[in-house]
Amino acid sequence: MADEPDDAVRQMLAGNSPAIRHVRAMIRMVAPSDASVLISGPTGSGKEVVARAIHAGSNRAHRPFIAVNCGAIPSELIESELFGHERGAFTGAHDRRIGRFEQAAGGTLLLDEIGDMPVAAQVRLLRVLEHKCFSRIGGRQEVPFTGRIIAASHCDLPRRIEEGSFRSDLWYRLAVAIITLPSLDQRREDIPDLVEQLSRGIDRPARLSDTALSMLARHDWPGNVRELRSVLVRAALFHPPGLGPVDVRHLPSLISPAGSAPAAGPLLKPVEDDGLSGLIAALERRQMCDALRRANGIVANAARMTGINRTTFIEKMRRHGLTRAEAIEPATHNRRDEDKENTPNQISPKSPEILPLLAERRAREARVPPDPH
Ligand SMILES: Nc1ncnc2c1ncn2[C@@H]1O[C@H](COP(=O)(O)OP(=O)(O)OP(=O)(O)O)[C@@H](O)[C@H]1O
């Protein structure tokens, strides 16, 4: 890419959408400094990857990167986990224990799910941020903190502040720079790039057919990139390269959890170039438009026909700039009897580029044995 260096950040964080390019630009800007960074984004969207990229791009890269999931540690243990304790500090503290802050000396400490940190620990953390030192639980000695703190959260921290479960003064200290990761659903064009990059980290990755890749780009990905990775790992397990490419008919069983997968495989034209995302968007828009027309503009019915959740359908309408009026209008002049044949998840069989695919699919369905999954 002409305007972006092909550096370690690019290697770590795949995707070419404007949103992800902006995230990479932010990483490059903040990495060399010591400023605290707050990374927000839905679960599995890559917050830890961003934190690691910041660490890798800093002059602390040769020092430890320590990640703590604050939501996974029982509240009565979290302070000792973070700050360590002296021998005899409490019942069961038989030895001095070094906490995560000390382990991260000179390096980077990622406090993941910071919104779940109990208020008492938040007070201690604020003190560390302000004074650059802390004491172990039950100890008097001040221990200098030489690391950098990065916090991450999938929850709405300003709301937690309003609710009184998160301290606003801590938020101001942490959020010197804020990096926000979009959900995968908001950057579907990144899917081919992500598939390529994630596949490199998988032993004997499966090969995906173009139509399978197109279908992946239509899934809602509630588990974001983590979910995509799981699908690829599962595909490698059940469809090793010797078995031929993973095709659309394999995907419903690979995409989980049950119910989040689109129903029957959509018919999409195979593509060879990087016009993939544009083509997918155009076909999706037309499919939605057809459904709206057949549902006389009733969004809930159109959503049901396409197998898309109603809220997602509305969001997609907004993204495609599709209005109910636009969808219904041609119906009054131009309704075709053949449309009644359309099954919910299909593109109109009248579409010229779809006709051969439809014929091919019908032939395939007639001869292909049931999927083993
Ligand atoms: N842009 C990306 N490029 C390559 N891999 C990615 C990218 N984003 C996420 N991943 C991969 O997706 C998985 C989940 O990422 P990560 O653990 O960073 O998400 P997270 O937002 O920190 O999740 P959680 O909210 O559960 O803590 C990891 O396997 C990670 O390597």
From TrEMBL:
* GO MF term list: ATP binding; sequence-specific DNA binding
Instruction: Spell out the residue ranges making up region: Disordered.
Output: 323-373
SMART domains in UniProt: AAA (SM00382)
| Any Gene Ontology biological process | regulation of DNA-templated transcription
Cited Pfam families = AAA_lid_14, HTH_8, Sigma54_activat
InterPro entries recorded for this chain?
AAA+_ATPase, AAA_lid_NorR, Homeodomain-like_sf, HTH_Fis, P-loop_NTPase, Sigma_54_int, Sigma_54_int_dom_ATP-bd_2
Q: What is the protein name for this chain?
A: Sigma-54-dependent Fis family transcriptional regulator
Upper lineage is:
Bacteria, Pseudomonadati, Pseudomonadota, Alphaproteobacteria, Sphingomonadales
